[in-house]
Amino acid sequence: MRNFFSTPTAIVGTVLLAIVCFAAIFGPMIAPYDPQAFDPLNRLQGPSMMHLFGTDQFGRDLLSRILTGAPSTVAFGVGATLLGVGIGSIIGVVAGVTGGWVDSTIMRILDGLLAVPDLLFTLLIVTILGGGMEHAMLAVSIAFAPGMARISRSAVLSVRTRDYVRAAVARGESGVYIVTCEVLPNALSPIVVEATIRVSFAIMIGATLGFLGLGAQPPSTEWGLMVAEARQFMFRNPWCVAIPGLSIAIAALGFNLFGDALRDALDPKRSHG
Asked: Would 13 be classed as within a structural domain?
């Protein structure tokens, strides 16, 4: 890990992630205007000293809306990923530790679910549950669970045969102790790396759902919804679409690059392979 910042990927990813996290934490406090305040006299304005990112079709300040929308956008990505990691890890650990027909049955089911792309799977679930931020987050987490289960299972299988696990078995330690104190702590690295990368996908899927009207609902300042609301005015003022679109790209790229760098730092052989 000491060489983590020795690559451009790590540096760029960390900088972008720091910007996104700063906006998510402090954005609403430093927003210069009320994000819902209408100003008909300044509709669809480009960047200026008064409005650094310009204004949307209602004259609302885009910078303020981006800053106040950062918490919900990032929270959606992180929350959906954590829930998906939790569900998937439990399934993967059970399969990896149990083995036998239980493992085989679980893996066959997962193989079938993994054949469906995450976005399509999410759309199917949202269609069943209904729109809204909470349902969208649950749908993304369910879509992520099979992939995380497979990764968790692989990590557990690679650790289960290590000498320290065999030593714990020889000492007569309980199964719960072996799993929680010997297997899981040493199988976390690939799970953490994959979770970090998946946050970027969750943010993009959440933005897509918001754009389609299946995620965040007005008057939310979620970035995907901002793109959807402004798309019919993009030729009059491209900034009202470009700014939230670029914000989504920066957030996704930051998590993705940081996850890639974290993977290389935790697995040097992979980066030199």
From this structure: no
Spatial contact of 131 and 214, defined as CB atoms under 8 Å apart? yes
DSSP string, 227-258: HHHHGGGTTT-THHHHHHHHHHHHHHHHHHHH
Domain that holds residue 148: 63-266
Counted domains in the chain:
1
Q: How confident is the model at residue 267 (pLDDT cuts 50, 70, 90)?
A: low
Give alpha helix (H) positions in the chain: 8-30, 62-98, 100-114, 118-129, 133-160, 163-170, 175-177, 184-212, 223-230, 239-266, 268-272
Count of residues for the chain? 273
Q: Answer yes or no: is 2 within a domain.
A: no
pLDDT digits (tens, 9 = 90+) for 34-69: 999 999 999 999 999 999 999 999 999 999 999 999
What are 6's two structure tokens? Answer: 């020795």
Distance of CA 228 to the CA centre of its chain: 20
pLDDT at 1 over 70: no
> How does pLDDT run across 79-134, given as a tens digit for each residue?
999 999 999 999 999 998 888 899 999 999 999 999 989 999 999 999 998 888 99
97: helix, strand or coil: helix
Q: What residue type is assigned to position 180 of the chain? A: T
Q: Does 143 fall in a domain?
A: yes
CB 227 within 8 A of CB 241: yes
In 3-state terms, what secondary structure has residue 143?
helix
Q: In angstroms, rounded to a whole number, what is the distance separating the alpha carbons of residues 230 and 215?
A: 16
Q: Residue 71 falls within a domain, yes or no? A: yes
CATH number, residue 67: 1.10.3720.10
Model pTM? 0.89
